[in-house]
Amino acid sequence: MAVSGIAGTPARDPLVRRIVGERVFGGRADDKGCVPAVYRRHVAEVVAAVPADRLLSFDPADGWGPLTQFLGAAEPLDDYPHVSQLPDFWRLCVRT
Predict the structure, then answer these.
(1) What local confidence, expressed as pLDDT, does residue 54 receive?
(2) What is the pLDDT of residue 16?
(3) Cβ-proximal residues to 75 (8 Å cutoff; 6+ apart), any chain
(4) What is the pLDDT of residue 17?
(5) Out of 32, 40, 62, 92, which residue is the most buried by the measure of CB atoms under 10 Å away?
(6) Could you tell me if 74 and 68 are in contact, meaning their C-beta atoms sit under 8 angstroms apart?
(7) Phi, psi at residue 2, to the nearest 5°?
(8) Cα separation values, 63 from 20, 72, 80, 91, Å
(9) From the centroid of its chain, how far is CA 70?
(10) Segments in the chain below pLDDT 70
(11) Which strand (E) or helix (H) includes residue 94?
């Protein structure tokens, strides 16, 4: 999917796509290996830069627990939202 946009987001703007494609992905946004590598490198840079006690590596599948514990907040009574199901994702994607 590379740098395709999500409906209603700035990623649909050609200028934004060009800037992100060039500055973030070095013009290789359509290279299936480039995008994950850039993402992994960014995560590693964040982990290296942020003190461990101030960083939460969060997996949404874990629900409210880790997030509310990290924030020192009470866990909401509502179920953790699961709105990012695969069919919803593909419905929202705009391939360019």
Answers:
(1) 95
(2) 75
(3) 64, 65, 68
(4) 76
(5) 92
(6) yes
(7) 50, -130
(8) 31, 15, 6, 24
(9) 19
(10) 1-12, 83-85, 88-96
(11) strand 93-94
Concatenating the DSSP letter of every residue in 46-75 gives: HHHHS-GGG-----GGG-HHHHHHHHT-PP
The answer to whether the beta carbons of residues 34 and 26 sit under 8 Å apart is: yes
Determine the pLDDT at residue 2. 43
Residue pair 4/93 in contact (Cβ under 8 Å)? The answer is yes
pTM of the model: 0.58
- C-alpha to C-alpha distance for 82 and 37, rounded to whole angstroms: 27
Phi, then psi, of 5 in degrees rounded to 5: -95, 160
80-89: burial string, b at 16+ Cβ within 10 Å, e else: eeeeeeeeee
pLDDT on residue 40: 93
Assigned token pair, 55: 């960083």
In the block, tokens 């960083």 appear at 55
Specify the 3-state DSSP secondary structure of 5.
strand
